[in-house]
Amino acid sequence: MSATAxxxxxxxxxxxxxxxxxxxxxxxxxxxxxxxxxLAIIAVLTTLLAVLFSSPDEKQITxxxxxxxxxxxxxxxxxxxxxxxxxxxxxxxxxxxxxDGQKLGPLTLQxxxxxxxxxxxxxxxxxxxxxxxxxxxxxVAAALKAWTGASADQQTKxxxxxxxxxxxxxxxxxxxxxxxxxxxxPALATGLLALATTGGLDAQLVGTTSGFYATDYxxxxxxxxxxxxxxxxxxxxxLQGGQWGMMNETGNxxxxxxxxxxxxxxxxxxxxxxxxxWADNADVIITALMALLxxxxxxxxxxxxxxxxxxxxxxxxxxWRSYYRRYASRQGASE
Length: 335
Hints:
By secondary structure, the protein is mostly helical. Among the domains are: 173 residues, no CATH class; 34 residues, no CATH class. The chain is 54% helix and 0% strand. The longest helix has 23 residues. The protein is elongated and about 105 Å long.
């Protein structure tokens, strides 16, 4: 008995409709006309919305407004500057060499940048402004003489003891501080508060580094950043990192929604774990992470596996399902 081998039917490979020439309906399209129309519509809408809703108009935060609104916090912050315990005093580059700054693993990126904007908080925020105006206040002049004539260790002890005493005082009120040996620090802090209340400290902090045009606000911003006042205002406006602050606007105005991906990382562990290396170096790590994700997006067409995702998960067929349905029916009819 013999058997005759039967060849298997050859599988017909159908062409991919996405690679074929478009044979559907077409119509002319004026790109320039479309652009002009869209530009005009957006311009009208932008103008109308700006007239109706305006924009956030928060008053400028100055040394003067801070000193008047929260004098206790102002004095307490000034004392930490003298004691060298403020955030600015220990920040590191680009302001000083007190620390290496944020790191990306073993890479001390902040330190590599160096000290480009030298800031000595004790002298720049307190001593120098008072020195420039001490001729009109004998008590401040005497306090400055005692301060500059003391050793660094003595200065730190005076200011540190006074800072601790303010922390223990009722409501943190410097006027209710327990009696102690604080040297000239109380007089310096009181003198600086008086100077700030008149508005003179704003001019001193900006004018000494900005020159004629007064555009360098590094010192007042750092001084404010050390305070509880700025932190409190930021919390009220939902601008803290844990409040998605990077993509928020002051008040109830919409902010930069496209920054949600940056802000997202600040809301999850390990970046929210206090004291961890991830949290301490969150800014530089998140920036590097976003740079890596952006690079992956740019190189997506060249990365094997990732570039095949649209083919293996053909969502485009769902979007253009009516076309593929017609194409399939035409193919069936032709066979």
